[in-house]
Amino acid sequence: MRKEQIINNNWLFRYHDGSEYNVNIPHTWNNEDGQDGGNDYYRGTCFYEKNFTAPTLLDDERLYIEFNGVNASARVVLNGKEILSHDGGYSTFRADITDYVKKINHMTVEVDNSKNDRVYPQKADFTFYGGIYRDVKLLVVNKHHFDLDFYGGRGLAVCPEINGEDAAVWVRTWHNAKCGRIDITLRDADGKVVGKGSDDDETIVIKKAHLWHGVEDPYLYSCEATLSVDGKIVDKVSCNFGCRSFRIDADKGFFLNGKAYPLRGVCRHQDWKGIGNAITKYHHDTDMAIIREVGANTIRLAHYQHDQYFYDLCDKYGMVVWAEIPYISEHMPNGRANSISQMKELLVQCYNHPSICVWGISNEITISTTKKADMMDNHRVLNDLIHEMDPSRPTTLACYAMCAPFESVGHLSDVVSWNLYLGWYTPFMWLNNIWVDYFHRRYPNRCLGYSEYGCECMPNLHSSFPVRGDQTEEYQCKYNEYMLKFFDKRPFMWATHLWNMFDFAADARNQGGEPGMNHKGLVTFDRKIKKDSFYLYKAWWTKDPFVYICGRRYVDRAESVTTVKVYSNCPEVTLFVNGKKFATKTGDKVFTFRVPLNGKTKIQASYGKCHDQIAIRYVAKKNPSYRLSRKKANGGNWT
């Protein structure tokens, strides 16, 4: 039976300048210089070395080495022999090292995130952290085992199809035992057996299946496959799966299990402040808890394959996922093979996750593409590949803002979304109305969504009269209030994904007075501050009652009467000023009060058992720290 050993500790890291020190995996060498701006973080080759004792193998056992994420290219040398190489920084890859292993072994991993024209991504608005940033494992398996050599998969594919009250679960396995016997066991969430099979390609019916219904009821079954040779079980693999159906309608949006289920959610980058992409389960769990708190029911996992643990969390908590590869910003004619291999890895490794409902082909690929014919052909190849490998899920892609509605790339995938920042990069939020309504009239049978929208926000910047480009917390609120109302009036939009849930590193940026960052998140890079807009979305998307007073960081106000805004999903809010009842208002999510200021003022908002309070004060002159200097305000975008 297979055994797994994580070998993350005690690696020797050798930097490009010759310096070396001990590290534990996960690790990146760009956790500082990839977040400080200047677009000058080190992209090149570094080395990781490790001595390890090989596990004792029986005569009929094999040993594999597995890497869950090395960015971007890896070359692995064991005891002086190159055993594998891999291009692509976000997926699992492995190799059988049985024939090269000794009792005491020396392994060197050459990791390269340098610029080239063949491995995606090369141009994008985020930092390409170099390093071994996910687990490294040794796997001991019987010589007869489920397939470990096909694009990082595990030799098990599960695809349920809903038929009335039942689910026909199509289970396929791949292994290397010519005379082996397969046994399939399906269990419900309580561990009760609900179906069995005994074939490499088997359809097992679950009667009156309990459906996986998003955040409302993310019910999971499990599938276990065992491989027996000569009556002895020699290998076992398993996965969770969910029984669900979905469809996307050009007029009515997304349907889950036959019911309208508007997809309203966020995009997520995986990196953290000071840590980069070298994150642990703690960081994944924290991100998921915050996303659940805001009330999202869908996540676009941008712009690459995320950790399998996070897909598991999406399954567990009912998030509908858009999964994609980093085919982004600039088509590279020499990168076609890499785009295909990364897509195959994504499909094979993530196929069993019920949370994933669409496969993303590319993101903003027309930003700087000159070889358009080759780019379109590359897209058609990927689109056909997805349909061939997984006909159960539609394809999608995210079009660049400057990609016109009639551009051919926007009509290639099964459904489409646009990255539009109307009201941020361009004036006038009402342009969203014109653009989307025109597209829907012109292409009434084309399913349209927003894959990105948003605006920058620094929680230390404030204004009573926010305007586009000022980076204030108040403008982010103003913008998102408009966008949420806009989406409510357009139920035909199949999905909307806010950019972004969290601030993230983009070393080429210099905006908001903090170089190296994209500040469009609802939460700061360190996950410590939930910006005011976070609570706007929470009011829109959640049911558990709460009240939240905006402007708690906007303390100094040079005005005798100030606007106090409350976000709440309650039907009314009562405001108290310095302990005295000021006013009660009924409303819908956004409650606005005009409050006189005279010195320090304590403000409390209440509804039933829900309370919140802040303290602000009148000042004679505006606090200059609330406003960016002209030099900082005019810093460069990443392009």
In percent, how much strand structure appears in the residues? 35-45%
Order of strands in the sheet with most strands: 31-30-29-28-27-26-25-32
Weakly predicted, low-confidence segments: none
N-to-C terminal Cα separation, in Å? 52 Å
Count up the helices: 8
Structural class: alpha+beta
**Radius of gyration using CA atoms only:** 26 Å
Task: Outline the structure in words.
With 639 residues, the protein is an alpha+beta fold. Helix content is 15%, strand content 36%. It has eight helices and 42 strands. An eight-stranded parallel sheet has the order 31-30-29-28-27-26-25-32, covered by helices on one side. A six-stranded antiparallel sheet has the order 3-2-4-10-7-8, with no helix packed on it. It has a five-stranded mixed sheet with strand order 36-42-41-38-39, with no helix packed on it. α1 runs parallel beside α2, α3 runs parallel beside α4 and α6 packs parallel to α7. The radius of gyration is 26 Å and the shape is globular. It starts with a strand and ends in a 6-residue tail after the last helix. The mean pLDDT is 97.
Characteristic terms for this protein:
8 helices, 8-stranded parallel sheet, 6-stranded antiparallel sheet, alpha+beta, 639 residues, single chain
